[in-house]
Amino acid sequence: MKAKITLLPGDGIGPEIVDATRQVLEVIASKSGHTFTFSTHLIGGIAIDETGVPLPDDTIVGCRSADAVLLGAVGGPKWDDPTAQVRPEQGLLGMRKALKLFANVRPVKLFRGLEAASPLKAERLRGVDLVFIRELTGGIYFGQPKGKETKNGLRTGFDTMVYDESEIRRIVELAFDVARKRNGHVTSIDKANVLATMQVWREVATEVGKENPDIDLDHQLVDSAAMRLVTDPSSFDVIVSGNMFGDILSDEGAVLTGSLGLLPSASLGEGTLGVYEPIHGSAPDIAGKGIANPLGTILSAAMLLRHSLNLDEDAKVIEDAVQKVLDSGLRTGDLSGGQRSLGTTEMAGAVVAAIEGA
Predict the structure, then answer these.
(1) pLDDT tens across 299-357, in order?
(2) Of the residues 78, 109, 141, 216, which is catalytic?
(3) How far is CA 43 from CA 106, 243, 289, 296, in A?
(4) Does 247 qualify as catalytic in the annotation?
(5) pLDDT tens-place string over residues 14-35
(6) What are 106's strand-pairing partners?
(7) Which CATH architecture has domain 1-109+259-358?
(8) Domain definitions of the chain by residue range
(9) CA atoms within a 13 Å half-sphere pointing along the CA-CB vector of 44
(10) Which of 11, 67, 163, 191 is catalytic?
(11) pTM (predicted TM-score)
(12) Is the pLDDT score of 209 beyond 90?
């Protein structure tokens, strides 16, 4: 396999965790006889500082010419002004649009030995292994009109939630495809009892369900789904939702594992090109200290191998190596409970050693 991988380190701890993950990918390439070529580009706050925009044209070109993209994180206090004309997060939204990435895939699985790190009781965590499929390019984040105005002397803000049936169908069909390789169960999230947009969502999801009788489909209102994620998380297999609901619920689901530092994600479109990133953000409070947990990014690289490069066996090698490292008791600071912990480079080195010894 020869593949071009574009690296977007971004802001905060992004450069540290992306560099650590590159080492893991290089070891996989060496062990399996692949050739991975890497190029690095700007996105987010650092891109604003150096070019004036959060997503330079050069970055878009670099992404489009790659087979896959590995992203660190964007944002930080330096650029944290919600009224600013140019913000780091615009780089993410612009990249998703430019690359036509309409789906975010976020697995939530509790690693063996980390039950105590979760805020939930251990008995509620048994069997937790679910995937969120979140629509990325529609809904209230992109609907028009939106804006702010003074109305009747009062400051007023407005946003529009809108989905057409083609947008709904493609994300629900993707959820069914994912479920088919798992436990065959899709839960579609909506608010059909009060929102017309979500009534259309439920209608289309139901139609897709009838077209795929081998998959079990159920519908859940977003508020009750939020409760069920805490009370009975193992009852979920694949959860599919619109943009805003998925944004909120997937973060809630992430807490089940006890650390955001362990969770990967993928943003996918209609082709094989995808953008892979950990979910934890830029963590500016620990940036540059060499203590960030690289495992979420390393596991994102496993998703990259599986979804964009079709290297399932190599992806599993990485995932098994991460479990082996955790089984051995090695931890970064977010998981150590105050005990001795490894830094970013040390933890990545432990994963590399586990891969080499596999």
Answers:
(1) 999 999 999 999 999 999 999 999 999 999 999 988 877 677 999 999 999 999 999 98
(2) 141
(3) 21, 22, 21, 19
(4) yes
(5) 999 999 999 999 999 999 999 9
(6) 132
(7) 3-Layer(aba) Sandwich (3.40)
(8) 1-109+259-358, 119-256
(9) 22
(10) 191
(11) 0.89
(12) yes
Q: How many CB atoms lie within 10 A of CB 33?
A: 7
Query: Is 334 considered catalytic here?
Result: no
Residue 57 annotated in active site: no
Mapped onto helix, strand or coil, the DSSP state of residue 54 is coil
H-type alpha helices, the chain? 14-32, 45-51, 57-64, 89-98, 122-125, 165-180, 196-211, 222-231, 243-255, 295-307, 312-327, 344-356
Indicate the CATH number of 119-256 among 3.40.718.10, 3.40.50.2300, 3.40.30.10, 3.90.76.10: 3.40.718.10
- Same fold yes or no, 1-109+259-358 and 119-256: yes
Contacting residues for 1 by C-beta, under 8 A, at least 6 apart: 32, 34, 35, 309, 311
Cα angle, residue 299 at apex, residues 178 and 305 outer, rounded to 5°: 65
Of 332, 346, 349, 341, the closest CA to residue 292 belongs to 332
> Which of 11, 247, 314, 334 is labelled catalytic?
247
Name the catalytic one among 159, 216, 251, 320. Answer: 251
Tokens of 34: 């692949």
Quote the CA–CA distance of 22 and 145 in Å, as a whole number. Answer: 42
Whether 220 and 249 have beta carbons less than 8 Å apart is answered as no
Is 191 among the residues known to form the active site?
Answer: yes
